[in-house]
Amino acid sequence: MSPPTGITKLVTVVLMFGCAAALIIWDTVAATNNVVGDTISETIFKFTHGHAVAGMGLALALGIILGHLVWGQAPQTSTGKEK
Question: Residue 41 contacts by C-beta under 8 Å, 6 or more apart in sequence?
């Protein structure tokens, strides 16, 4: 049984904005507390400098994911079929 039409698009948008908001809130809390080096960027920076190969893998994975999101896709109709 498939979900009602349009509900998956709504859930996707809500999840994207919800996750982005949660990361922003978490990073703000981490940046404003008294613990040094606990923000997301500081943690990634420490990890990549301690593990060079894994750091390159992380950069590659993020590049593939972000490239997939912004790379041009074929225009689609409202039914999801390519024009």
Answer: 27
